[in-house]
Amino acid sequence: MSARALEAAVEAARAAGRIALGHYRGRFDVSLKADATPVTQADREAEEAIVEILSRAFPDYGILGEELGGRGAQDVRWIIDPIDGTKNFVRGIPVWATLIALEERGEVTVGVVHNPVSGELYTARRGAGAFLDGTRLAVSDVGALDRAFLVHAGLTILRKAGYWEGFMRLVEATDRQRGFGDYWGYGLLAEGRADVYLEADLKPWDLAACKLLVEEAGGRFTDLDGRPTIYSGTALATNGRLHDAVLALLRR
């Protein structure tokens, strides 16, 4: 079943990507949601296309989407972010993607991440590996923090979340630090190009597909307090070898 679900998710992600890309290369209006984050008609139209395709393929599955909310079954449901990186999208920065995951009884079993600008397609199925454009992914074998490449998604967000002192300890302990952010940090981690990635102020649709991608590439995913969840608002992804050391430095 998960193979068929992956096929449907890829179809939906590509359809949403075509819609979003049309807006990205043209003109679009931007409005602010209640939480002051931007939303465009591209977000809404892309999510509508995803829901239509997935609901047709799996009518009994529920939906949890960033723009259209939740409906239907909760034990087996699709978790959807039509445009992860809307702020990048709005500014014309080509680091944004459609994220689709299938969650079955609390476990993510299918994940798709598609950047329509680059054409990159990350896919993962529970127990079957993670892939980028058909090439299997594996995390790095870096085993010491002083050789690690640290990626983060935003400094002010980490400070406001209360992790600033721990993050500074992590910065001091690692070899190199860059702020790439959004889905791309997880992609770099799963590809073995980065070793540690962390971010805060998150929703489950930001993380569901990315968590599976990291885990199926051989890495480890938890929140910043070490819990393997997508529902606490923070995230830490590592190659696994460094995870406990990173958590020890982050502890408040």
Give an overview of the whole structure.
With 252 residues, the chain is an alpha+beta fold. It has two domains: 2-136, Fructose-1,6-Bisphosphatase, Chain A, domain 1 (2-Layer Sandwich), CATH 3.30.540.10; 145-250, 3-Layer(aba) Sandwich (D-Maltodextrin-Binding Protein, domain 2). Helices cover 37% and strands 27% of the residues. The protein is built from eight helices and 15 strands. It has helices at residues 2-24, 41-57, 86-91, 155-160, 164-173, 182-190, 204-216, 243-250; strands at residues 30-32, 38-40, 62-65, 69-71, 76-84, 97-104, 107-114, 121-125, 129-132, 135-136, 149-152, 176-178, 196-200, 220-222, 234-238. The strands form three sheets. An eight-stranded mixed β-sheet has the order 4-3-5-6-7-8-9-10, sandwiched between helices. A five-stranded mixed β-sheet has the order 12-11-13-15-14. The longest helix has 23 residues, at 2-24. It is globular, with a radius of gyration of 17 Å. The chain starts with a helix and ends with a helix. The mean pLDDT is 94.
At the third CATH level, what is the topology name of the largest domain?
A: Fructose-1,6-Bisphosphatase, Chain A, domain 1
Counted by DSSP, the helix tally is: 8
Strand composition percent: 25-35%
- Architecture of the largest domain, according to CATH? 2-Layer Sandwich
Helix content: 25-40%
Q: Low-confidence runs (pLDDT<50, min 5 residues)?
A: none
Main sheet specs: 8 strands, mixed
- Tell me the radius of gyration: 17 Å
Distance between the termini: 42 Å
Label the structural class.
alpha+beta
Shape: globular
CATH superfamily of the largest domain: Fructose-1,6-Bisphosphatase, subunit A, domain 1
Strand element count: 15
- State the CATH class of the largest domain: Alpha Beta
Summed over residues and divided by their number, the pLDDT gives a mean of 94
Please state how the strands of the largest beta sheet are arranged side by side. 4-3-5-6-7-8-9-10
